[in-house]
Structure formats: structure tokens, C-alpha cells
Design brief:
Blueprint: E1 3-5, E2 10-12, E3 19-21, E4 25-27, H1 35-45, E5 50-54, E6 60-66, H2 75-86, E7 96-102, H3 104-108
Parallel strand pairs: 2-4, 6-7
Antiparallel strand pairs: 1-4, 2-3, 5-6
Helix pairs in contact: 1-2
Length: 109
């Protein structure tokens, strides 16, 4: 895969140049994304989260993210937290990501 773990930042190079983020992976910008890579990036940014990602076409994905960090947060802020873990890949390599964000209590209800 085009990602490799680096301590502290994600570096992406390709037609848009080099882009940095905090997920801890390197992406060369030449291959499509996969569900497992997106799960790893979300988990790296939200270590307390349970994450499931699906999507077979390499650009459209759905994710369920369950995290105690979401307590007392509106949905929009939860989604922004998840998008932040993916950084500049959102809207580029990841064309669309449908999100379901819950706290553990909401999941059990």
C-alpha cells in the first residue's frame, strides 16, 4: 500500500504536492484508498474509538465511529473530528465519506 507509518505526521505527495497531517502515515497520492487504511487513520487520530469502514470503489466510503470523546458534542463537531483524522485526503483521494458517529451509550440505546 502507499502508506507507511511515520512518527508524528502524515506526508502526502502527488499532483498537489506534499501535504502534512497528524495521522502518522505516508501516502504517495497514486493509489486509491481502501477501507482498512481509512480505519487505521481514524484510529490513529481517535485512539479511544471503535471504527468500522466500508466501501469497495476506492473513493466512496461509509464509517461508523463510536467514541467516548463524542460525549456532549453536536453531530457536526463529531464529524469534523473524524474528518480531521483524514486531513487533506478528504475531498481528494476520499471523494465521499458517510459518517455515523456515536458515544458508547448511544450505541447501546
Amino acid at each position: 500500500m502507499a502508506f507507511s507509518n511515520r512518527s508524528g505526521s502524515i506526508m502526502m505527495s502527488g499532483f498537489r504536492g506534499v501535504i502534512a497531517d497528524n495521522a502518522g502515515y505516508e501516502y504517495d497520492g497514486k493509489q486509491s484508498m481502501d477501507s482498512m487504511t481509512i480505519e487505521q487513520m481514524i484510529r490513529a487520530g481517535l485512539p479511544d474509538a471503535q471504527v468500522e469502514v466500508s466501501g469497495a470503489d476506492g473513493v466512496h466510503f461509509e464509517a461508523e465511529v463510536i467514541s467516548p470523546s463524542f460525549r456532549d458534542m453536536p453531530t457536526l463537531k463529531r464529524h469534523r473530528m473524524v474528518y480531521a483524522t483524514l486531513g487533506p485526503l478528504m475531498g481528494n483521494e476520499i471523494h465521499a465519506l458517510g459518517l455515523r458517529t456515536l458515544t458508547p451509550e448511544e450505541q447501546g440505546a
